[in-house]
Amino acid sequence: MDEDRRELLALLAEDARQSTADLARQTGMEEAAVDAAIEELESSGVLKGYQAVVDWEAVDEDRVEAAVELNVELDRETSYEDIANRIGKFPEVKSLRLVSGDYDFALEVAGESMREVSFFVSERIAPIPEVTQTVTHYIMTTYKDRGVEFRDGDDDDRLSVSP
Amino acid sequence: MRTSALAEEIPPSGIRRYFELAEERDDVISLGVGEPDFSAPWTARRAAIDSLESGKTSYTTNRGKRELREAISEHVTRYGHEYDPDEEILVTTGVSEGVDVAMRALVNPGDTVAIAQPSYLSYEPTAELAGGEPLPVPTRAAEEFRLTYDALESAGAADAELLVLCYPNNPTGATMDERHLREVAEFCREHDLRVLSDEVYAALTYGDDHDSIATLPGMRERTVVFNGFSKAYAMTGLRLGYAMGPPDAIDAMNRIHQYVMLSAPTTAQYAAIEALESCDDQVEEMADAYNRRRNFVLARFEEMGIECFPASGAFYVFPECPTDDPAAFAADLIEEQGVAVVPGDVFGAGGDGHLRVSYATGMDELREAMDRIEAFV
Fold it and tell me: Could you say which residues from 161 to 190 on chain B have a Cβ atom under 8 Å away from some Cβ of chain A?
């Protein structure tokens, strides 16, 4: 990948709301070139989407999130990919990753209540034949998400004018 | 209380007025700040905290912890420097203290101290406090604020004992590569000038890597180089810098330093060792962020039709003021739009007609500030 595209990805990963014009100004690219590069990154599947980082605790809404560890047993006909396809289709599953270590899949699951999340795990995930074990960790507090610290004192206490 | 005649002669800082205006409003976006908006890398801060937790609160040796001087000696090889940690490096309380003790160690009463301007504000007062007579050497926008042989000659610097220069430059953002430094070095050799080279922004160049005048032929023995942790490592408040030069110069500086400072802050020295050992990546990330903002600010000024040379170092650009009166422009910009910049003439000869605009500010604020400037002009 060329340097311009890498630079664009770095800028978008930091703040995806920046205008094409501002991306162009920061990289020294033409606006049309920025547009074309982003389109190409999207269509080739490098850029999967743009989302906000939300502190749901600061919102008056019933929302429960859990990190779920999943162990599976593969057989000749079933691959990790097959299981991932099946589990990933549930809208409750916000992220799904195959990981190394004591368990196979790491999931982030969200719902309106602990009851709902528990129900989802026990009734939708656990019964899948290849799943041998689930461990559910309810998220109690989020301190940092996707590089953004939630409780960081971000005040600029520099002198307003200095030499 | 009666104060000394010497102290009475020190003029108030030219930026004071703009500081006071900016303090009057609480919605000011300041592009008038001479320090990074980042915090020091967490590992460096952690090292400082660890040193405090384990009770490292005593003095260090006058010259600074040997471990730090060794790390500095190793670090500066990237700029082509070779300095002996025992005899040729002095750890100071910021470059500011380094410059002060160097003036006192190298200037005799009545000596002319040539100062390339516009420049950081401390060189003239420290030269005067040391008994020297400052000689401003203006640089010009037409030469992208590089110091030239001709500028030195026409300012009368041939009679000077000392030359002070700062590249990458505050306030212009100008840099000088080896090709341009050569003629300055030639002038210094011809007229036997010694050089104080403030290179505190060395890590912040956007394009070619920094070149130091001390690495040119015949210059090492007549140059004291200053660098520090404030800008590259976003450690301004920890107050730590260093001076490097020939053993006799460093020894003379240390004799003064031992009485005025004893030793540089110990906590900061621990942070600095860690910074040199493990923070190159973070410095590069910060430099990348500055570079993107620099591109952004230069593009916005160009779109507004404001003339601005493509400054390639530090975190400043130095556009031409769109009006005839930069002081009034800066004051009105604060009052009407809540954006602080500093008029260039504050930084000495050659700065008139320009504005110092610092881009050491997050992108969101920078965007807002440039929108406000556009609305104002």
Answer: 170
Domains defined along chain A, listed by start = 3-43 (1.10.10), 56-141 (3.30.70.920)
Picking from A28, A156, A159, the nearest residue to B295 by CB comes out as A28
| Residue found under tokens 């330093």 | B257
Measured in angstroms, the CA of A102 and the nearest CA of chain B are apart by 30
The whole-angstrom separation of Cα B13 and Cα B35 is 17
Which pLDDT does position B210 carry in this prediction? 98
Please give the single-letter amino acid code of residue B173. G
CA atoms within 13 A on the CB side of A141: 4
As for the ipTM of the complex, it is 0.86
Region A61-88: mean pLDDT is: 95
Reported confidence tier of residue A154, pLDDT bands at 50, 70, 90: low
User: Which residues pair with residue A7 across a beta bridge?
Assistant: none
With a cut of 70, which residues of chain B have pLDDT below it? none
Q: Which amino acid is at B346?
A: V
Collect all residues of chain A within an 8 Å Cβ-Cβ radius of residue B284: none
Q: pLDDT tens digit string along A5-14?
A: 999 999 999 9
pLDDT band, residue A157 (cuts 50/70/90):
confident
What residue spans define the domains of chain B? Answer: 5-40+281-376, 57-278
Which region, left, alpha or beta, applies to residue B323 given φ > 0 means left and ψ of -120 to 50 means alpha?
beta
* Cα distances (Å, whole numbers) of residue B287 to A26, B26, B203: 13, 29, 8
Contact between B99 and B198 (Cβ < 8 Å): yes
E-state strands within chain A = 64-72, 93-98, 105-111, 131-138, 144-145, 148-149
Residues of chain A with C-beta less than 8 angstroms from the C-beta of B121? 163
What's the pTM? 0.94
Region of residue A162 (left: phi > 0; alpha: psi -120 to 50; beta: else): beta
Q: Does B57-278 carry CATH code 3.40.640.10? A: yes
Contacts of B89 (CB under 8 A, 6+ apart): B63, B64, B69, B72, B73, B83, B242, B243, B244, B250
| Residue A161 Cα, gap to closest chain B Cα (Å) | 5
In CATH terms, is domain B5-40+281-376 a member of 3.30.1490.20?
no
Q: Is B15 on the interface with A (CB under 8 A)?
A: yes
Give the whole-angstrom CA distance, residue B118 versus residue B347: 5
Residue type, B161: E
